[in-house]
Design brief:
The chain is built from 7 helices and 5 strands; from the N terminus they run βαβαβαβαβααα. The protein has 161 residues and is α/β, with parallel strands linked by helices. It has one domain: Response regulator (Rossmann fold), CATH 3.40.50.2300. A 5-stranded parallel beta sheet has the order 2-1-3-4-5, sandwiched between helices. α2 packs parallel to α3.
Amino acid sequence: MSERHRLEGRKLLIVDDEPDVIETLKEVLKGCDVRGATSFEEGEKLLKREHFDIAILDIMGVNGYELLEIAKRRNTISVMLTAHAFSPEHAVKSFKMGAASYIPKEEIEGIESFLEDILEAQEKGKHFWWRWLDRLAAVFEKNFGEEWQKTDRDFWKTFLQ
């Protein structure tokens, strides 16, 4: 399968309380079958009624962590997308709760690369987060300083080992 076309035709659910975020993602992910929901209740109904290859879940505003639990029970790969919950602590929480990735909204234009990484990892039997640190370490350093990993040194020391 071509490296940049793993997403082609995939069914995605985006749950975010900001309709403009959903519209932006629909534009960025043009080759995908994208459904959007602007509330927890809408997202929950869609997750329970339909199969999605990937769910992109806002953390704040739509109770993204609860949606993550529902998506996991439905065997749906889930990605946490956030602006207000952008922190090293939420990245760790997302990882520990079973999200396939944690992406700050400031990286929304490049989300296709993150999703492609996830699907490639699945294809190759690797951990979903295998390229995450390479892609986002500089963003975290810019936002939280050079020692952003110090809040949970043990976790980051053993991250993906």
